[in-house]
Every structure is written in structure tokens, then in C-alpha cells.
Amino acid sequence: MTASGFGVSVGQSFGNCPKYIQLRQFHSVPLADPSMRIVQHLDGLDDAARAIITEADTFFVASYVGVDG
After folding, report:
1. Averaged pLDDT for residues 29-58
2. What angle do CA 48, 22, 50 make, to 5 degrees?
3. Between 20 and 30 A from 55 (CA), which of 2, 36, 67, 69?
4. What is the mean pLDDT of the chain?
């Protein structure tokens, strides 16, 4: 990492791993106004979320923590 950014080395790409990496068609989706987003605090996943994950060929988990408190 440098003051101007960072570099990435690719160990595997679409040509090397077609079984697990699927080509996708992406499209831009306008972001909702943050003040209008509904916050949900859940103790687990509902049936709809489980179904989406079950049917997905790829799934990413991410988390966030605010440093202001």
C-alpha cells in the first residue's frame, strides 16, 4: 500500500476457476436516501433470507462497526 493506492495480484481468475466463478450481468441501482432506509435488528434469518442464500451460487458476508461509539 502506498499513499496513492494499493495493488492487487490475481491468483485465480474466470479462466482458471469457471466451476465456482459465474459471469454476471451487472446493472446500476440508485441508492436509497440513507434517512429513508429501514434499520432492522434481527436475532436470525427469516424464511425469505434463508431461501435467497440457499438458491445463491455465491454468497458474501460483510459486517460494519461504527468507530464513533
Report:
1. 82
2. 15
3. 36
4. 76
* 33 secondary structure, DSSP code: P
Give me the mean pLDDT over the 23-31 stretch: 78
Taking CA 55 as the corner, what is the angle to CA 28 and CA 48, rounded to the nearest 5 degrees? 80
What secondary structure does DSSP assign to 23-55, as a single string?
Answer: -------PPPPGGGPPP---SS--HHHHHHHHH
Average the pLDDT over 28-40 and give the result.
77
DSSP category for residue 39 = P
Residue 57 confidence class, pLDDT cut points 50, 70, 90 = confident
Number of Cβ atoms within 10 Å of the Cβ of 21: 14
Spatial distance between the Cα atoms of 48 and 56, rounded to a whole number of angstroms: 12
Pull the grid cell for residue 45: 434469518
